[in-house]
Amino acid sequence: MASRQQLERILKIDELIRAGKYPNPRQLAQEFGVQERTIYLDRQFMVDRLGAPIAYDRRRGGWYYTDPNWALPTVFVTEGELLAFLLSVEVAKRYLGTPFEKPLLSAVEKIRRSLKGQVEVNLAELQAVSFLTSPSSVAVNERLLFDLQRAIVENRKVKINYFTASRGSWQERVVEPYHLFNLRGDWYLVAFDHFRQDMRVFHTGRIDRWQVLSEVFVRDPHFSVQEWMKQAFIAERGEGPVEVVVRFDAYQARYIRERRWHPTQKIEELPDGGLILHFTTGGLEEVKRWVMSYGSHAEVLAPESLRQAVKEELKRTLDLYEGKKGEENF
């Protein structure tokens, strides 16, 4: 367990340094809930065992790489093993008994050999824990995930035949893949879309044909997936971000307080036990569906366009249940 935690910290340290965040031991210790000495040992491991060119910038107050082209050593020898690790041991638990099982176990063994300490994986003990996906998750071709991961690593363009659900049509696109992420059991691809000339999120379950092209692309060094996705709500990013304000009654507020719904959120407590949730996003269609799932316990206060959209949707729903829509058809 200790070695796996060390691996997670090392990957996070590497991510923050590459993003130009200049992490320091105090910040990292607070984030991981460990002592600063532990973070210094992680740094020493990266320098001595992995050859990381880490230095301290006094002006920025944190670490950076003296050689920005340095990369973590390759631990995995096949694309299947790499993907299995990206799923993480916990998420990959659901793939035991599937084609992912063998690459997963092989990847865990390589991690064990590369780090200090001992790691034991007892499959029988893992049966005590389960991770359930949504029953509505869309099945994805395993080969597609392998190929997209390879294209991301090799900076290769990909031609896809994609179904746009909002228009109900298929279209061939050429994309530059940047990142894969899993949300509630579904896989999404963040990629630059040549058709739209902009970054887009693609549901991999809507790709029926694809081809990794020989043509390579140059990644935008200033593009951060994390920063870009801050504008999204769940998996929908939409257009320009706007402030969303939603009031929850005292009953629903108990559950809203438990979670962090958006990176920009702010909670305003109300005297009656309710609360007002503020956040900034462009994914208003997703917000509309989310708010409506709480029924009478939630009310959109802003923006006005979203408030009206919810109001109109509720009116159409009421008409449906009162039979008005059916009567119009006779």
From TrEMBL:
Ranges for domain WCX: 241-318
Top-level taxonomic group: Bacteria
The WYL domain, residue ranges: 145-212
Annotated protein name in UniProt: Transcriptional regulator-like protein
Organism: Ammonifex degensii (strain DSM 10501 / KC4)
